[in-house]
Amino acid sequence: MKRRWFLISIIAVFMLTSFVGENGVLASKLNELKKEQKQNEIKKNDLKSDIQKKESAIKALETKIDDFLKQILSLNKEIEQTNANMNRVIDSINKTNDEIDALKESIADLEKKIEERDVVLRERVRAMQIKGSHVSYIDVLLGANSFADFIDRFSAVTTLMDADRDIMRKQQQDIDQLETEKALVEKKLAELEESKAKLEKLKASLEAQKKEKSRLIDQLEAEQEKLSQEKKDLEEEYHDTIEVEAELEKAVIAEQKRIAELARKEEERRRKAAAAAAAAKKPGTLPNVSSGFWTRPANGRVSSHFGWRVHPIFKTKRQHRGTDIANSIGTPVVSAADGVVSYAGQMGGYGNVIMVTHSSNGSIFTTVYGHLSKINVSVGQVVDKGTHIGAIGNSGNSTGPHLHFEVHVGNWTASGPSAVNPLRYVSF
């Protein structure tokens, strides 16, 4: 913004002061404006390059953002899966606790039965110890009074022995079952501890994933904020450059109109001074000055005419916007008509170039003299037809020493219909 207003202020000063002062000072303002315009064009090109780089960076950032979003979506799925696993583990733990409670009740019942049988067995043993060797199953059998009594006694003894064996068998079975169920309880408890450990690990994993998700979201928001700010700065700078370009274009047009007006006012004076200026030239070194408004700009051979041709350097078909006059380096170049120098300096493929603005019967023309080896005039200088302004050279995009001469109806333009065939006005 500061640069834009600074440039606009300079342009305003140029425009306000363009109607006062000496001719040379006034015309030089056009040169300064064109220099500023060229600098702004370079600035705009640099900005376009920066825009392309920013666009590439933006695309890369958008790809990165998409990757972050995919990671977040994947993370959400993992969190959902972890929550589901956690719920299943909790359900399993609850079921295990219920089974443990049931096992504890079964163990308690077995322990109670074993304890009751222990009491019975202890009583039987105690009774047998009290009777000692006086009473035994054999004594009972031998004490029978008859065979029938023996059979009865044998049946009774067998029943008692079977009862004792059944009690001991059940006691052993219950003891074995107790051991089995105790082992089962221990196994269930171990599984419960393992489930608890897994649950704690899942919880830790879930917390870590949540933390990672938050970090990714923060990074994503920071990248988005940076992208938004870069876009904003880039757009502001681009709009500033466009505004400066428009202001410079207006100033250049105004300055060109001012120079054209100056050329019209000086037309009559130049006509009167033409004869005296031609007489002052060195004979034999400059081209003969023709009668009429126009004259040949240099001596030499016409090596290329106006029109379409294959460019000798770039090898592409292009329009040749002037007439080439081949001669040795240093051959004098003169103004083709009375006018005011509107540009003098280096310009891209033209190399060293001079532009002269002319006024003839209310019409404006601009002549161009390119590839010069020497420039003898400055911007704003008033020149007459035949005035020595420079010398043939080989500067710019040139394959040999020659003068590239153009005639434009109106002001010079880099493209468009302003350039016309010089043969319409000048005889070669």
UniProtKB/TrEMBL annotation:
Question: Can you give the residue ranges of the Peptidoglycan hydrolase PcsB coiled-coil domain?
Answer: 107-180
Coiled coil feature spans = 26-120, 161-265
The keyword Cell membrane belongs to this UniProt entry's keyword annotation:
no
**What InterPro entries does UniProt report for this protein, alphabetically?**
Cell_wall_metabolism_enzyme, Dup_hybrid_motif, M23ase_b-sheet_dom, PcsB_CC
Q: Where is the M23ase beta-sheet core domain?
A: 319-411
Classification via Pfam families? CC_PcsB (PF24568), Peptidase_M23 (PF01551)
Q: Does the record bear Coiled coil in its keywords?
A: yes
> Which UniProt key words apply to this protein?
Coiled coil, Signal
- Going by the entry's taxonomy, the superkingdom of the source organism is recorded as Bacteria
User: Mind telling me which PANTHER family this protein's record contains?
Assistant: L-ALA--D-GLU ENDOPEPTIDASE, PEPTIDASE-RELATED
Name of the protein in its database record: Peptidoglycan DD-metalloendopeptidase family protein
